[in-house]
């Protein structure tokens, strides 16, 4: 008959042997997995370094689309893309932020076109008016954003917006003026935005246009498109009567009762860099 103590020792020894084999097996699997991961990682790093340094992916052409006010050369200067830079290594977000630092740029989209071309798509702001702000004139876009201070090299042919602009831009009169500016910027009939020297806003009488020739057109608060379409008929009638259109007031506030009268209108004072002016 076996010694009970000896039997227990043999059983314990057997269990330790089994556990040791299991631990060694797990250690081998772990070491093998780590080895595979290391090899794959090394291959990936080598592949990445090879790819980002490969001349096959070096930028050979940059296409800039959407330039109107800005030139392709100016955009490339802001993008600051280095010669022979790798297409995969560049940070598109950083380039976009550099380009968007130009006040004329509203939005920019940048994409890669493999193997060696970069595409830059711009959406520029459209200046539709000049507004007095911070002791100077600023360019205003169709969204009502005063995005840039007027400088000597900004040759714009847009009206001055007077009497309805404020920094918070939440007034009903300012909203109406933007509505009118959107119509004028798209219109092909007189008056176009290029004919207007000033748009004047008044809380009681609404909006009035002053043309380069001194013609004043009173529009009131609404239905600007319909009112200005009636203007063509009035202008044709005045021409038949050989009446000079300068320094004249045409009141279209009530389209059913259009009033025309002669009136002295002071000449505009032209802001620097603009072909338009503000009445003094």
Overview of this structure, please?
The chain has 280 residues and is an alpha/beta fold. It contains 5 helices and 14 strands. It has helices at 4-52, 72-79, 92-100, 172-186, 224-240; strands spanning 61-65, 105-113, 117-124, 127-133, 136-141, 146-149, 160-162, 196-202, 206-211, 216-220, 248-251, 259-262, 268-269, 278-279. The strands form 3 sheets. A 9-stranded mixed β-sheet has the order 6-5-4-7-8-9-10-11-12, with helices on one face. A 3-stranded mixed β-sheet has the order 1-3-2, with helices on one face. The protein has a two-stranded antiparallel sheet with strand order 13-14. Helix 2 (72-79) packs across helix 3 (92-100). The mean pLDDT is 83.
Keywords:
single chain, 280 residues, alpha/beta, Ubiquitin-like (UB roll), Rossmann fold, 2 domains, 9-stranded mixed β-sheet, 3-stranded mixed β-sheet, 35% helix, elongated
What is the mean predicted local confidence, pLDDT?
Answer: 83
Low-confidence stretches: none
SSE-based structural type? alpha/beta
The run of helices and strands is HEHHEEEEEEHEEEHEEEE
CATH topology of the largest domain: Rossmann fold
Major β-sheet annotation: 9 strands, mixed
Oligomer: single chain
Query: What is the CATH C-level name of the largest domain?
Result: Alpha Beta
The total tally of domains equals 2
N-to-C span: 126 Å
């Amino acid at each position: 008959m076996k010694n009970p103590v000896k039997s227990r020792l043999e059983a314990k020894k057997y269990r330790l042997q089994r556990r040791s084999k299991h631990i060694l097996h797990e250690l081998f699997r772990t070491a093998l997995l780590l080895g595979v991961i290391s090899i794959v990682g090394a291959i990936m790093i080598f592949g990445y370094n090879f790819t980002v340094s490969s001349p096959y992916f070096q930028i050979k052409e940059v296409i800039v689309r959407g330039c109107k006010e800005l030139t392709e050369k100016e955009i490339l200067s802001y993008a600051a893309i280095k010669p022979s830079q790798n297409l995969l290594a560049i940070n598109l977000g950083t380039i976009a932020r550099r380009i968007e630092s130009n006040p004329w740029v509203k939005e920019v989209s940048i994409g890669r076109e493999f193997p060696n071309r970069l595409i830059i798509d711009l959406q520029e702001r459209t200046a539709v008016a000049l507004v007095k702000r911070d002791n100077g004139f600023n360019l205003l876009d169709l969204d009502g954003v005063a995005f840039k201070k007027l400088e000597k090299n900004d040759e714009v042919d847009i009206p001055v917006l007077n009497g309805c602009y404020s920094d918070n831009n939440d007034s009903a009169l300012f909203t109406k003026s933007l509505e009118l500016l959107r119509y004028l910027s798209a219109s092909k009939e007189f008056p176009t935005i290029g004919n207007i020297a000033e748009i004047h806003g008044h809380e009681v009488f609404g909006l009035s246009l002053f043309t380069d020739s001194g013609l004043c057109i009173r529009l009131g608060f609404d239905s600007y498109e319909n009112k200005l379409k009636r203007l063509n008929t009035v202008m044709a009638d005045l021409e038949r009567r050989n009446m000079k259109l300068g320094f004249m007031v045409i009141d279209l506030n009530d389209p059913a009762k259009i009033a025309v009268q002669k009136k002295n209108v002071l000449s505009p004072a032209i802001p620097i860099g603009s072909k338009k002016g503000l009445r003094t």
